[in-house]
Amino acid sequence: MDSGMILDARDEVPFEPLLLLLPEELCWMLDRNFACEMEWHSGNTLSQTVFTFLYIHQLADINPDLIPPGFPLLKDPKRPIELVTLVLRAAVFGLLKSCDFVWRELSKKRVFDMEDWQSDKCEVTLLEGVPVDIVLRKLDDACSWLRNSALPQTDKEALCDRLMLRKTLLELFKLSHLDNLDELRPLVAIAKNILRRVQARPSVQPIDGSPALYSFDPRVVRRLHTVMPIRVLELPSQETVWSKVEQLLEGWEQVGHLRSVHSLSGWEIAGSLSVWMSERKLQLPYCRSLTQGTFSDRNLVFGEYPTEWLVDHFFEESLGVSYETIRDVLEDDIERWALKEIEDHIIRVTTNYIKSFWYNPPRHRRFLMRAILDWQLLQDALSNFSSQVLVIDFESYMISFCLPRAAALWKYTAAREILLSGFHQELYSVHERPLAYWYTAHIIEQHIDCIDGMRRVIPSDSVAFIEMQFQSQFLGALQLVCAAMCMITSNALTQPRKRTALNFRRRYKWLFRPESNSELLFPVPLFSDLPEYLDMVTDDEPNENLKLAIDILQDLKQFDCRGVWATEEAKERLAEKQAMPKGALGYHSR
């Protein structure tokens, strides 16, 4: 309630929009505008960031067509009025229009308001009704004036680079808004080149008393319509800001690449890497929203395929057999309406599953918990179908055997993601970690058994078979790592068995079938077997397990990624997996 209270008149910022500026002062202001914009991208409010730049609220006052004739302006060749009325005004237009495009994308509800971003505009315009081409023209006109002005060459180049960076970003936002991503990569390359030039010639903070310092008011929220008091936000250093701009460009670059990856496996690998690779920062909400829209939007996949494409690739990438072949076998025994229900279920589950990799990590984990039941329902329905198939040849036997296991593969993967993400997000207490590692190892064991059973019957020349070879080897190493970590942390398992069982039920409630309070979706030895299991594993040296896991992953260096669905993603995944047990060894040494 105190956000609008002014304790002292000295707190009021003296601001006059038509005060003349030096080129270096304007450069600093434009750089800090990027700081405001990137902080909004990072999840802060517009009133804390973009709207603290006071020229946004004074656009009419710096309009050259509205300045009264004879208005007293100091004539100073070092501070031409056009720097304010033409250059600065164009930059403000570009900033607001960029925010407008971002706001429209984020409001599509692929990311979450108040969680990933803040939508409150405080009744301030983002130039929603101004065509983007007019803004681009203003930026071009400002650059043309600068190049023909009498300002020093270094100042002209510095200002033009910042205006062109703004223009290129705005063109990228425009492309994304129109779902026309064909020109995305060239624009990203242009923006990166301009950004390197801007970084090479950093702006200098103005001296005390400069009008540029008064152009930002972090307490501007006092004068805006907002529903809550907002604390004053300290903007990051300019080096950090440029890093975030580069992160935004890399997000666009990743979207452009993924748009050419027409494979469910490729998108799943890319999404998993974005979650687990420590050197990758979590993408900005705008990029995560754009990535989800690129995968599927308006009943189209990649903007060109109907959603039936998902059903075809679900089976082809899981079983190595086309859906047309499966449907030919099933249609003799299964009603068409039942097949249509399964197709709709697959489309819904796979679409949401792939998109969930670009949620924020806690939201991704919660989604997977809910999705486990959807995968189980799909597995049950496919099991019912397979039991009705009349087996007359090897093809019908293979389809009957593998059909429910196709859903099981995705279910096991989702369960593993949930369990391991609990470590990633530091959700487990010290008493819970041994049991979490133990249970993860058992689920991985079931996953390996499922893969080994399918490998005996699916076509050996299919891409699915090659992927299963990789998964079987990798999961074997991961199981060894989980068993080793269970041994390492087992000394923390000091709670009574009853307390451990109650904690398990509370932590893993997503594992129980809704119609049963005791039946697990992934049956494992119950708690009565846990002490015996720990006695067995603690007889071994965990380093032996870890070294064996490293040996297995070293063998994966020979794995030929050229035969899989998404070659580049598979290579990147391979490099990331080989560092996994070494981190566990480091944990053990500590």
From TrEMBL:
One of its GO terms (cellular component) is NatC complex. It is found in: Cytoplasm. Keywords: Cytoplasm. Residues 286-450 form the NAA35-like TPR repeats domain. Belongs to the MAK10 family. Residues 1-134 form the NAA35-like N-terminal domain. It comes from the Eukaryota. This is Uncharacterized protein. Its main location: cytoplasm.
